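Supplementary Methods, section 5.1.

A reviewer requested that the exact input to the structure prediction be made available. We therefore reproduce it here, unchanged from the version used in the analyses.
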Amino acid sequence: MTTVMPAVREILVLGHNHFDPMWRRCFLADAVYNGTTVKPYADIEALVLDGWLALAPRGYSFTEGQAVVLREWLRRRPDARAGLRAAIAQGSFGPVQAGETVQDSNLSTAEGLVRNFLVAAPLWRELGIEDHPGMQIAWLEDAFGNSANYPQVLLGVGCTVAAKLSYRACPGDVWTGIDGSSIALLDRVPMHYHGAPTKYPPCPECSGAGCAACSATGLQLVPVLAQESFTAFLASVVAAVQDPAAKGPAAGAFQGWDAAVDAGLSGGTPGVGVGGEETLPVAGILHAVEAVAASCPPGITVRFGTWVELYERYRPRLAAAVARADGSPSPELNPAMPGCMVTRRETKTRSRASAYRLCEAESRIASDAWRSGAPVSAPAEFGEAWRAVAFAQFHDAITGTHIDAAFREMMQFLDRADAVAARHGAMAPSRPENAGPWRAAGAGEQRLLLGRLTVRFDRMGILGVACGGRELLTAVASGPTMHALRVGELLLESDFGDAWGQRIAPLGDFSSRGLGEFHDQVEIAPNAIRWRGRYRGGHRKVRHLTWTVEVAASSDGDRLDYRCDIDWDAESKRIRAVVGVPSTDPTWLGEIPFGHIRRTFDAAKTDWSQWTGHQNEYPILHWAQHRLPDGAGVALLTEGLPCVRWQPGRFDLSLLRSPEWEFCQVEPMHYDFWDTDGQRDAGRHVLSWSIWPAPQAQSSDALTRAGYAYNRPGFTAPPCTIEGTAIVTAWKPSEDGQGWILRLQETSGTDSTISVAFDRPCRIEPCDLLERVGRAGSTGPSTSDGRWSARVQRHGICTLRIL
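The structure derived from this sequence is encoded token-by-token as follows.
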């Protein structure tokens, strides 16, 4: 008689620690406030990695994918390099692909998303893991929303699966972007985590400065992981695996376990993550795994493993799911924490502006080299500059929840990036005030021709804007007693919440106040209008608020360019600009990195809660557009990272917030460190946007070109002609210095033919986003005559290597 052995069920224990490069600590510098020193994250990360490496020879596993963390650790601990290589070889270190940092893909420019991975590649090559299976796992842990064309970017850097989507989950096993690219998801597996977010307080003996009592760390390293509790926890996991359908405390050991059972997935390999945030690995976890493994019932084993192994267990199922995908885009994974896009605005505007200045400088270097007839490498300092920008795009950078010392450190990083761009010819963008001559305007309604637009205005603002014989922008009625809100008028609102978002629903529009009533004067020049105002409403949370708003015709005469200079000191307030449009249709278009997406206002989805907040506000890259039923269109061009909301009848452009609640920034249950006032963004801000009404709605191609010109005015065009609906996002020396890189984005949102013709013969080789020829993500044929043409999918990215 043949004995049939039962299938062995493995439980993989996955060591991992979520690292935030900057947040309630600086990254590299000590933060000192009120006599206390808070040590930087780089110190914490080094302690965690040191602790893990000491245990790695005994099998303790670890996963990490942020290059900035490993690079800084190895800089501080050069002797750890050999141990890390050995751990990679024996499988106790599981590298994953986060790039330089885990990005928030809504914060970055399109090119910034690519550079995050490109600047990490040298470290992966140095460690010999460029082609490690773990580099196929895109690690998205804690990103505050994910952009709808990010799957294409992830596939273009060699990833085949994404893990750890946060806050907005994607249904199913596949995430399909707006271009039709599909990437598998490793998020719907039986999984639970042991450990907790821990913020080690400053040492009480030395107030964080470093002393013998804390071994010069400056930290009170309180124990978090304990052998006894983890042993009990792991035993409960084994019980849940024995009886997947159990409904009790043991079954609850897995996050999403019931969902996995219901989906018929419980027969897969479960994972148990152990770690947390700032959590030191301890030998007791090894002992717990050994003890539980020794007592497992027949057919169940427990051992340390990595996310790479977990992926291998599920790869066939996920590959089949991707093969079944029909190219229909997944539901958008936004908005998530929409207040993030406005709070501490400079973290967003600076990172985007710095990225564009580096792109502009690279385009000058590439064009100069092309004219000389020989390729060159970009100066080495560009790598450091792009690493600074990628650092400033990391996921917690979008929240604004930095202590002030960390915010200043980030600005210093971006200062260095800007200095590199300036040394190579990129100039800081500026939108100067109109030179006038100015004269006082009357108090009543008046008209002025600005470019091709006829503007009706009065002391409170613009009443209407007409083009092509029709008024497309109008003041918006706001109630029986308050004035109609003018076009582009500033609106002051109550906004109670934290940096992540507003948490208390407003009482309709009754908590809002149009600031046009506080204008002291209106002036006109031959080509501009200017209003000056000062808030005198008496609200106790508005200590100071003055502003100047200037509107001038754009250089082509088609748009109204706004320049707003605000000086404020307020708490729990928000400032918006309101643009009235005579249309009740709920749909609108918004640009995102490498594409655009259609959105629909849905009041029923409004949610003010902590984790699922949804206020119908979305991030955009450069432009938003509403198309009127009769074919006309109204678009906004913006800079930085504004939050845009279309609700039938008007666009709301969110400009500034001053949240009071210090959620996540300071948590006294861990330690007091109230270096936080800058979250309110008190002080002077110069903001710009542009309004573009058109009798015939602008095409997405025209809007994308205008948006890039508005945000990247100094870019040097490549020496080629381009036919088709495409924008150049990069023209640069190749990373290896042997040629040039031209990156194009399809802009119509439909499958299109794009053709390129250089001004002299050259070889053109399609490559992926990491500039590797012949990899997934390459589009079109190779040619040798300086001409290239290919059919490109909607919102497609094409990267060409020119030799």
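Residues 346-372 form the longest helix (27 residues). These observations are discussed further in the main text.
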